[in-house]
From TrEMBL:
Residues 83-366 form the Protein kinase domain. It comes from Durio zibethinus. It is found in: Cell membrane. Its EC number is 2.7.11.1. GO terms for molecular function: ATP binding; protein serine/threonine kinase activity. This is non-specific serine/threonine protein kinase. Residues 1-61, 370-416 are annotated as: Disordered. PANTHER family: OS01G0588500 PROTEIN-RELATED. Keywords: ATP-binding, Cell membrane, Kinase, Membrane, Nucleotide-binding, Serine/threonine-protein kinase, Transferase. GO terms for cellular component: plasma membrane. Residues 10-61 have a biased composition (Polar residues). InterPro entries: Kinase-like_dom_sf (IPR011009), Plant_Ser_Thr_Prot_Kinase (IPR050823), Prot_kinase_dom (IPR000719), Protein_kinase_ATP_BS (IPR017441), Ser-Thr/Tyr_kinase_cat_dom (IPR001245), Ser/Thr_kinase_AS (IPR008271).
C-alpha cells in the first residue's frame, strides 16, 4: 500500500475532534472485553453530513458516527508478523506503516484473508494522538470511491494503530519521482485519470454541508489501487471549514511547503480554496514529473511553481518542461489546457481560483477530447537540467524535520 503518512512533528494539530476524548476511554474498555468488536460509536454527535442534491456527493456518503472495526493489538501484531522489519512499507513523522494479512476465519473457508496497511503511531507523540483522533473522526465517517478506506483502529495501553485498505500501486509521488526498475512511469491517460479521481475526492469534501478542508493535498497523499484509481489518504490535518457567514477559518499553519496556499502560510487564514491551490501544484507535478521543491536544481528553479509559471501560459514553452518520461506521447492541446487550469488553481487570491466542481468539469472535458498523442521529434531537446537523472528521490527543507528517504510512504517537508 502506498499510504504516505505524516503530519508535521512538533506543534500539536489544532483539535477539531475535542469531543472524541470524552468517549474514547469507554471505547478502549469495550475493546479489551470484546476483542474485535465492530461498528464503534466513537463520535456520537453528528458534526456534518452529505449535501442534499449535490451531484458530487451521490457517489459517497458521510456517516453520523464512525463505522469502524475495533482491532486488538494481538490481532494486528499477528497480521504484521510481530511488526517485522521486512513488513515495513514506509515511515512518516508519527511512526511506521506495515503491510499486514488479516486472516478471516470464516466457517467453511480456509486461507481466506485481506491485505491491509497498519499504521503504528509513536506512543510518545502528543500530536500523534491528535492525528489518530482526527483520522478516526474524519476518515472513519467518510465513504467515497476516491477516499482511502479506514477499516478500523486499535488503542490498548499506549499503543495507537490505524488499519487501512491496501493500495497496490502505491503513491502518485513514487510514480512521478521514483527511480529504479520497480517504478513504473505513468502514461498520459493514466495521469489524467488520477487527476480527475483526486479532484472528485476533494470536491466531495468541499461540498458537504459542513465543509471539510483537507489541508495537506500533495502527491504523496494520493494513493493508487490496482486500476490506478486515485484515492486521497491521511486526514490527520483535516479541518472543518468556515460557516455560511464566514469566508475562512483561522488556524495554526500546518501542511507541506510548496503545496500550502500563500494566503494560509502568510496569515493562517484557511479557505476551502486553499486546497485548490495544492491541487494546482500537483497538476504541475503531473505535467513536468518534477518535485515542487528541489534545492539541487539550478538557481531560480528550486521552487517548481515559481519557475514554471511563465511556461504554463505558452504552448511552445510548455513542451520544454513536460515530463521526458512521457516521451512526447501526449496530446499537446490537452496538456496546454491542463496547464491553463493549473494556472487558475494557483491564482494568488483564493476568490480567483475555480471550485473543485469546476476543476472536475474542465478535466472531464479535456479527457473527452480524443486527440492522438504526437511523438516528439527530437527527444534530446529536453533541457538537461530537467532530466530525472539529476533529481533526488527525496528533498528536505531546512525549515522542516528530516524524513528518511527511499520510500513511497514518506512525506515532503512540513510547514512549521
Amino acid at each position: 500500500m502506498g499510504i504516505c503518512w505524516g503530519s508535521p512533528a512538533g506543534n500539536p494539530t489544532p483539535s477539531t475532534t475535542g469531543h472524541l476524548s470524552s468517549v474514547i476511554s469507554q471505547t478502549t474498555s469495550n475493546t479489551a472485553s470484546s476483542g474485535t468488536s465492530r461498528g464503534s460509536n466513537i463520535s456520537r454527535d453528528s458534526r456534518f453530513s452529505a449535501s442534499s442534491g449535490d451531484e458530487s456527493s451521490l457517489n459517497g456518503q458521510i456517516l453520523p458516527t464512525p463505522n469502524l472495526r475495533i482491532f486488538s493489538f494481538a490481532e494486528l501484531k499477528s497480521a504484521t508478523k510481530n511488526f517485522r522489519p521486512d513488513m515495513v512499507l514506509g515511515e512518516g513523522g508519527f511512526g511506521k506503516v506495515f503491510k499486514g494479512w488479516l486472516d478471516e476465519k470464516a466457517p467453511g473457508k480456509s486461507g481466506s484473508g485481506t491485505l491491509i496497511a497498519v499504521k503504528k503511531l509513536n506512543s510518545e507523540s502528543l500530536q500523534g494522538f491528535e492525528e489518530w483522533q482526527s483520522e478516526v473522526n474524519f476518515l472513519g465517517r467518510l465513504s467515497h470511491p476516491h477516499l482511502v478506506r479506514l477499516l478500523g483502529y486499535c488503542w490498548e495501553d499506549k499503543e495507537l494503530l490505524l488499519v487501512y485498505e491496501f493500495m497496490q500501486k502505491g503513491s502518485l509521488e513514487n510514480h512521478l519521482f521514483g527511480r529504479g526498475s520497480t517504478v513504473q512511469s505513468l502514461e498520459w491517460n493514466v495521469r489524467l485519470k488520477i487527476a480527475i479521481g483526486a479532484a472528485k475526492g476533494l470536491s466531495f469534501l468541499h461540498t458537504s454541508d459542513k465543509k471539510v478542508i483537507y489541508r495537506d493535498f500533495k502527491a504523496s497523499n494520493i494513493l493508487l489501487d490496482g486500476s490506478y484509481t486515485a484515492k486521497i489518504s491521511d486526514f490527520g490535518l483535516a479541518k472543518f471549514g468556515p460557516s455560511a457567514s464566514q469566508s475562512h477559518v483561522t488556524t495554526r499553519v500546518m501542511g507541506t511547503y510548496g503545496y500550502a496556499a500563500p494566503e494560509y502560510v502568510a496569515t493562517g487564514h484557511l479557505y476551502v480554496k486553499s486546497d485548490v491551490y495544492g491541487f494546482g501544484v500537483v497538476l504541475v507535478e503531473i505535467l513536468t514529473g518534477l518535485r515542487v521543491l528541489d534545492p539541487n536544481r539550478p538557481s531560480g528553479q528550486h521552487n517548481l511553481v515559481d519557475w514554471v509559471k511563465p511556461y504554463l501560459s505558452e504552448r511552445r514553452r510548455l513542451k520544454s518542461i513536460m515530463d521526458h518520461k512521457l516521451e512526447g506521447k501526449y496530446p499537446s492541446k490537452a496538456a496546454f489546457r491542463i496547464a491553463q487550469l493549473a494556472l487558475k488553481c494557483l491564482a494568488p487570491e483564493p476568490k480567483n481560483r475555480p471550485s473543485m466542481k469546476e476543476v472536475i468539469e474542465t478535466l472531464e472535458q479535456i479527457e473527452s477530447i480524443n486527440e492522438k498523442p504526437i511523438e516528439r521529434r527530437n527527444r534530446s531537446a529536453h533541457h538537461t537540467t530537467r532530466r530525472h537523472g539529476q533529481q533526488p528521490l527525496h528533498h528536505r527543507s531546512p525549515l522542516a524535520p528530516k524524513h528518511e528517504a527511499g520510500h513511497a510512504y514518506q512525506n515532503p517537508p512540513q510547514v512549521r
